Amino acid sequence: MQAFALRFHHFGLASRRPEQTLNFLRGLGHEVIRQVYDPLQNVNLWLCPHASMPTVELVAPAQGPGPLDAILTTSSESIYHLCYETENLKASLEALKEAGFRVICVSPPKPAILFGNRQVSFYMVKDFGIIELLESS
After folding, report:
1. pLDDT digit string (tens) for 2-61?
2. What's the whole-number mean pLDDT along residues 97-124?
3. DSSP structural state of residue 36
4. Terminus of the chain with fewer CB atoms < 10 Å: N or C?
5. Mind giving me the DSSP string for 71-115?
6. Calpha distance 133→109 (Å, rounded)
7. How many CA atoms lie within 13 A of 41 on its CB side?
8. Main-chain dihedrals φ then ψ at residue 52, nearest 5 degrees
9. 123 in Cβ contact with 130 (< 8 Å)
């Protein structure tokens, strides 16, 4: 049992040119099983699983300001978060902090359309990077 009670779910790939990114993912054998616009985050999303590779969540900017603006300032694409599933958000966050990690909430829990309105939240973990925590159904 690992200390934080987190299971890897997917990695998030931001792209200003999602059609080209999707072409590359399809060439690797990824499927596109879902595409949605998420108004709470103002992004377009594609969920792209693979039989033997990690699942990719492709995230592209929508119209107007959004959460990818700073991430895509120097590059047209970037892997920018890892997503982990948790049975107990509060306990996982407490375990991270008890282990000595500085955890800063970037985006508090909100329903995620791509994941059937399950709650998702984003955190900056010092010395690791941005993580998305997806609450189990």
Report:
1. 889 999 999 999 999 999 999 999 999 999 999 999 999 899 999 999 999 999 999 999
2. 96
3. E
4. N
5. TTSS-SEEEEEEEEEES-HHHHHHHHHHTT--EEEEEEEEEEGGG
6. 9
7. 25
8. -130, 0
9. yes
